[in-house]
Amino acid sequence: MRYASRARRVVATSTLAAVGLAISVLVARDVRADAPPDESALLARLPAFDVHAHVPPFWSSEGFWHRPLEPARQRARMPRRCRTTGGYREHCSGPRLVPEPSGAPAALARHLGLGTHETAMQILGPSGPFEIWREAARDLDADPHLTYPVPSGHDGRGFGYVRGGALRHVRHDGLDIQATRGSEIVAARGGLVAYADNGISGMGNLLVILHEGGDSTAYAHCERILAQPGQLVRRGEVVARVGDTGFARAPHLHFEWREHGRNRDPRRALLPRR
Ligand SMILES: [Zn+2]
Asked: Could you tell me if 151 and 175 lie in one domain?
């Protein structure tokens, strides 16, 4: 009799323990669903990728994509420090204010070949991001709509053949958003930072974020960039500040959106502002 009651106690205790374990597993699962994204998990899951083995070697050269950006006769309207000999503005891309790579994001960037000149060229070019980068950006933010990237800004020059004069045949590949210098720039959609540097002529301090489905957003002319390559960012997170580095006459954000790797008018995807 005494033995049977002890057995019942043991069964009851172990049942309670099992229920407790099940609850804690459920709670842990909930916590994981809400946990911030983790660069270390991506590093462990994805194979290493050598970007240099997959892009044309001449992309690495200093001179590539340093194409003329503005006719000489428009020089007078640019800031004095940007006037250059030869008629084109080539020396106004700085100052380079980008974060020093560190921690898990830096390790992930090295692992996946993010943060290099070639990375930006590939994503901004016609082929779009490599498959391994698409995989890395999967499940980060499923909503394809874009949050307006400068909360305090307003629309300037639009997308398309909107310029006159010598540049009338050159498409403006993004939306200009005017704002005061130093205004916050937020990630238009959650994603993986692919590039955060100063190496693409005309763009100044440039941030490129990869999103699910091969989409990407680019943020040019930044005064400074606050996110580093390999970093996972959430929609609405402050990632840079408005400036006039690169080809810009006044502080503004030049904002580009690529859908499945193709350059599109960002206004087609922007959410209504609150
Ligand atoms: Zn622009």
From this structure: yes
Q: How far is the CA of 254 from the centre of ligand 1 (A)?
A: 4
Q: Is residue 274 part of a domain?
A: no
Return the structure tokens found at 103.
């921690």
Range of the domain at 114: 41-268
192-238, pLDDT tens digit by residue? 999 999 888 789 899 999 999 999 999 999 999 999 999 999 999 99
153-175 residue pLDDT tens: 999 999 999 987 777 888 899 99
Instruction: Output DSSP code: residue 182.
Output: T
**Angle, vertex CA 42, rays to CA 254 and CA 145, nearest 5:** 35
Cα(64)–Cα(213) distance, integer angstroms: 28
Residues in the 5 Å CB sphere of ion ligand 1 = 176, 254
Ligand 1 centroid to residue 126 C-alpha, Å: 19
**Pair (172, 231) in one structural domain:** yes
**Residue 157 Cα, ligand 1 centroid: separation in angstroms?**
7
- For residue 273, is it within any domain? no
pTM of the shown model: 0.80
- Same domain as 199, residue 148: yes
Question: How many folded domains does the chain comprise?
Answer: 2
